[in-house]
Structure formats: structure tokens, C-alpha cells
Amino acid sequence: MTGRVLVNGPAAWNTLVRLPALPGNASQTLFAESYDDGLGGTSAGKAVTLAALGADVTLRTVLGDDAFGTSVRSALSGVRLDVVPASDGRTERHVNLMADDGGRLSVYLELPTPAPAPAPSFEGFDVAVLDLAELSRPLLASARAAGVPVWCDVHDDDGRADYPRDFVAAADVLLVSAARLADRRAYLSDAVARGCRLAVCTDGAAGALALDGDGWITVGTAPASVVDTNGAGDAFLAGLLTGVLDGLPVTAALARAAAVGALAVGTRALGAPHATLGEVDRLAAQVDVRRV
Q1: pLDDT interval class at 1 (50, 70, 90)
Q2: How far apart are CA 141 and CA 157, in angstroms?
Q3: Does residue 27 belong to any structural domain of this protein?
């Protein structure tokens, strides 16, 4: 694999609580099926998966000098880090309630403010994955000015919320979830019409829909035994990106993305840190991807 990747955005230390279903809007007592602490953050999920697949990846993220920051650094031991200190010394933390049907409710315990830090140089990087975070916002223009392709994952954007708009506008490659989209075809068409090279909408077990300059692409799923959906979208993007870096046709890169996503839902770990290219490509051969 050729090319260096900068991933910029959140890494956290999370508590994951697994429940049969998410709580409703009423006072109640719930019993967890299980719970554990571990690595969290969308950028961390992408970075560990990219590293597992052999990418040369640097993660730029905000960390505190507390015990949780130490835990995050340990969990990211296989990833090159560019750490921006948290101004209050506290590392980002969440409690995530995970339901059996894949639903998730995230509660932020700590959301650190980055201390003043120099902007990263894009020299030597071939792709910048700029995740939804204030740490990424000033890099959207500077990456494009440096001629580095920008990849953005806007998660469950509904097409109307203010926060993701700059990310959507800047993306050369855009990933979005179908969770809150009223019309995914209109959303993807608008992105490509404004200059996005490839726009992809993921829809869990229903697969994905993509659009590039040559038209629509439907993406099926790879065989999977679902254990935990946490980080599946991050893994999908990592698989797609490694396919592009390897020079695969877009349809083959999307098949690889679906395969990595399938590996991610089969583990309680964030993303797919256990993935290997051999296993991924065997699964990708079973994914139905077609231009329509």
C-alpha cells in the first residue's frame, strides 16, 4: 500500500453499556447485559483499522495528561500520534448505551478544549481524513489548499444541521449514514454536483448506496455475525480508503469497505483492529457491488 494518511479528530476513553433496548422517555431501572471500558472516538476507530490494514497513518487528536489519556495512548500503541494537549488536562470520555438492535445513545462526560497548537503540515500526506470536531474545522481549507484530498465522515447528518455543512462542502470523498436522511439519493446527488468525487451512504444490514461521476453504485453486505455495531462506519471508511490507496476500482474498494465493516460488527473492539487484508479480500469477494 502506498500513501500516508492523516486522521484528525476525536479519541476517547469510553464506558460501553449493553442493553436489550435503549431507554424510553420515563424514569426506570435497567439492568445491563454487560459493560466494559475501552478505546472510543470516531477518529481512533478509523486509525486503528487503517493501521491493521497496513496503512501509514498518523492520528492527530486531543488528549489530557490524566489516567484516561494514558489508557488511550496505550490502546493506540500501533498508531503514530500527533497529540494536541487538552487545555484542562482531561481526556474525552463518553458513556455509550448500546442496544441489541444496534441503537446507540452517547452521553458525553468530558469534551476537552484543545490547547493552542500549531497547525499540522500536510507535507508528505496523500489523504486527510477530517472528522467532525472543532479540531478539524480549520484544516478543511488548509488541506484543500495543500492539494491533499479531504475525506469526511458526517455520521448521521440530516442534511439540515449547521455543524456538518462545512465538512460536507469540503469533502472530496464523503461518508454519511442513512439514519436521519429523508432522501439519500438527493443528498448524494447534491454532494457530487458540488464537486465531491465519491459520496457514500451506509445503511447497516441494508448495505450502502454510492454515487460518483460515473453514476450510482449499490453495495451489498459481507457475511457477518453481529456482536457490536460500535465503529462499523469508521471501519467501512478505512476499508474504502485502503482500497483507493491500493489503486482498486471504486466498485472493488467499496466491496472492501463492506468487508471491513462486517469484521467490525463481529467484535466488541472499536472498529476492526484485528482485520487483515487477506481476510478482508476473501470477504469482499462475497459482496455484491454493481453499477445501476
Answers
A1: low
A2: 21
A3: no
Residue at 94 is within a domain: yes
In a domain, 121, yes or no: yes
Written as nine digits, the cell of 247 is: 489503486
CA distances for 116 relative to 87, 119, 268, angstroms: 8, 9, 35
**158 in a domain, yes or no?**
yes
Answer whether 286's CB lies under 8 Å from 222's CB.
yes
What is the pTM for the complete model shown? 0.94
Res 178: pLDDT: 97
Digit-coded pLDDT (tens) for 28-72:
999 999 999 999 999 999 999 999 999 999 999 999 999 999 999
Query: Which residue, among 42, 109, 39, has the nearest Cα to 74 in the 3D structure?
Result: 39
Given the C-alpha cell 442493553, which residue does it identify?
19
pLDDT above 70: percentage of residues in the chain: 99
| First-residue to last-residue Cα distance in the chain | 30
Which residue pairs from 272-279 have beta carbons closer than 8 angstroms and sit at least 24 positions apart in sequence?
A: 272/49, 272/52, 272/231, 272/235, 272/238, 272/239, 273/48, 273/49, 273/51, 273/52, 273/78, 274/52, 275/49, 275/52, 275/53, 275/235, 275/239, 276/52, 276/53, 277/53, 277/54, 277/242
Beta strands in 190-237 (DSSP E): 198-202, 208-212, 215-219
